[in-house]
């Protein structure tokens, strides 16, 4: 396996609100290897966006704060990096694009101005050269008539085009890692496919690792090499995309996959996991998913399950697999298949 | 842009027409006979009737209005009943005095207000933010006349640093060219006089500018804080931009529009003449000019004064609208 470029070790980010301390990200472990596309999947509020913002050290503070763990980026712990150092890393080593292309660009400055800024923040080049490079970059992400687009304002562009601009801007520093936080959620399905194609192309051509945050398993299946499933601030399952989609281990992942609409089967109603995601809370004991889990037994409510290694780089946070020998797993699988 | 400005100027015509109608009606619907005022209470009826005829007051209202408009179109604002002088000539020095004072008051208000607002937003919840906002609250709620008197007492009376009254040293008046004394003294290359005139401007400008300053500071702060939460600010940070770039380039421009609105409105208000400030500082501005005309029922002056003030307001609004468009490319009219 290629070298690890980013490794989260027990990363915890808490929010300090009037109603108490909220562990939005709770001891998350995650590795990204060079040139790899890793998907982080989960429902809204599961901590996936907070994880990505923590890596960028862009958690709004107050109320948010990284309270523990490490973010190792090429041997450097970013949780200890100064703001000055982070400014050099953001946009150059690790870039980020966001969910809302409509509001992610400043409406009062031209595309060229904002793109040139990205170049000039990290390289000593003239405005003219920065603009030229912006045009080249826009062409690389498939923007037609880039020469005139640079003089236009964001509102003159469609959502898909703006997301391309965002990607071009994020790629301007030729980063090691691109974090994409729900990059296609706000877009039409056809545009989604184009944006995913573009990201895959950049990943292949420039060997940029991508951390893709999404709630859409379809998107994951499309481009990710590996998937991390998050639930209520914790990683609950990890493995290669193929295996997770084919053979999900954690009951939550199983539920997620079951709730996907299938073309070949006639379904009266789409499956949905009963209940809602519990809000992360300090001092909670037991599996976060236990209340919604159809396989939950007493122990699930009494102790916190660990992320258990299942071999073949697969991990699952579920007691069912700890007691593999007792034959519970076969029960689970037969239940799911039925 | 040019087409837009031209269109806006054309749109001014109906607005101005409406303004003349309103000022004309207000003055003519108010009870009180100007001829009686001029001649005094005990004047014989015949004399009053003669004067009314000479002034055209016995004509039907629409004829009077027609004459008024015809005069306006030729730049004739009428004749003052009190001084018998041409209003168009009389009013300019007053207007210039008010414009000059307004300019410096707003300069003070904008420079201090906007910067205080920015720093408050930047260092939200810091001691600076706290102090600035307390001062802003005091500034908004402080009576202007009290502040003016305190200034005079401290800086003119006790410390003797600054003059308390007037636009200039009255023993040595300037030869007027434009009516803006700072500009005039610069044209004369008489820089010593410029200093004197600027010194005269300090206290009234601060007195007049304090309320706008406080309003601008609060508006800038809240507008900045609002903008700082936007997605595009996060984008700037994500590409490695620092606090300075975020605040002074990306946030400030976006926060400007509401602040600009407030600046425009406040400028309009100040141009209407601040009677209290002008009276306390013996400033020969438009506010006092109109106020004196009202006490004397000098209705052509009142009418012209109100018209000129309204006109200034409209012009300021036009400038603000043009600036909006300059700042925000999304604005379409």
TrEMBL record, chain A:
Family, as annotated: Belongs to the ABC transporter superfamily.
InterPro entries: AAA+_ATPase, ABC_Ni/Peptide_Import, ABC_transporter-like_ATP-bd, ABC_transporter-like_CS, Oligopep_ABC_C, P-loop_NTPase
Species of provenance: Compostibacillus humi
Keywords: ATP-binding, Cell membrane, Membrane, Nucleotide-binding, Transport
GO terms for cellular component: plasma membrane
Residue ranges annotated for the ABC transporter domain, each copy included: 6-257
Keyword Membrane set for record: yes
Record's protein name: ABC transporter ATP-binding protein
Pfam family, one: oligo_HPY
Membrane topology: Peripheral membrane protein
An individual GO BP term: peptide transport
Superkingdom, natural source: Bacteria
SUPFAM superfamilies to which the protein is assigned, alphabetical: P-loop containing nucleoside triphosphate hydrolases
Single GO term (MF): ATP hydrolysis activity
Annotated compartments: Cell membrane
PROSITE patterns per the UniProt record, alphabetical: ABC_TRANSPORTER_1, ABC_TRANSPORTER_2
Automatic annotation (TrEMBL), chain B:
Recorded superkingdom: Bacteria
The ABC transmembrane type-1 domain, residue ranges: 95-324
Gene3D superfamilies in the cross-refs: MetI-like
Pfam families, A to Z: BPD_transp_1, BPD_transp_1_N
A GO biological-process term: transmembrane transport
Keyword Iron on entry: no
GO cellular component: plasma membrane
Intracellular or extracellular location(s): Cell membrane
Protein family according to the UniProt entry: Belongs to the binding-protein-dependent transport system permease family.
PANTHER family: DIPEPTIDE TRANSPORT SYSTEM PERMEASE PROTEIN DPPB-RELATED
Full protein name: Peptide ABC transporter permease
